[in-house]
Amino acid sequence: MTSSSHIERQATNVLKKTGVEAPPVPVHLVAQRLGLLVESVQLGDEVSGVLVIDGEAGVIGYNASHPGVRQRFTIAHEIAHYLLHRTDSSLFIDQRYFTAFRDHRSSDGSDPREREANAFAACLLMPSQLVRREIEHQSFDLADEEGLDALAETFQVSTQAMAIRLSNLGLFASPA
Is residue 172 part of a domain? Predict the structure, then answer.
């Protein structure tokens, strides 16, 4: 299992290479600069995204029917699989393709790869330095639900994702 500090550094390095300096992180552009094709697809309610890798090339399919904030997180999550897990032979379907499906294990934390991908997605979409800068410059009152909503909107992520990220950064006590 990859450490959270290592995941944070990897996400930061990806952002540096893509020149991201302000929220919201252009996740489609990040994927494109990594050589990944991103497509909106119909996946049904149970699947958020799919990643197919062929050598150095990859295609991310995200659920067209999910809300925009969910789509952004899914794309970032699949980028994480591409960067962190593409050599994991346990999920190869064919000798050339690796497929990672988001499922019930993705959100309940039972698969270490899914936890890593979620952590990476949070670091990528809500970089610690940008979150801290926004809190300082915008004077968000994080004790107020409206402040949390506004910060989430700035980064184009869900309020829940922002609350978890703030908690992980030690900036906000997550709800009980």
Answer: no
Q: Which two tokens stand for residue 48?
A: 């958020």
Residue-range definition of the domain harbouring residue 81 = 4-126
Judged on CB neighbours under 10 Å (0-12, 13-18, 19+), 149 is: middle
Cα(128)–Cα(20) distance, rounded to whole angstroms?
Answer: 13
Tell me how far apart the alpha carbons of residues 123 and 59 are, in angstroms, rounded to a whole number. 21
Q: Would you say residue 135 lies in a domain?
A: no
**Considering the domain boundaries, does residue 58 fall inside one?**
yes
**Residue 133 within any structural domain of the chain:** no
Q: What total number of domains does the chain contain?
A: 1
Rounded to whole angstroms, what are the CA distances from 5 to 13, 44, 93, 111?
12, 34, 31, 19
* Residue 76 pLDDT greater than 50, yes or no: yes
**Lowest-confidence range among 13-27, 120-134, 140-154?**
140-154
Residues 90-134: pLDDT tens digits?
A: 332 211 223 344 444 444 445 788 899 899 999 999 999 999 999
Q: Is 157 helix (H, G, I), strand (E, B) or coil?
A: coil
Global pTM? 0.83
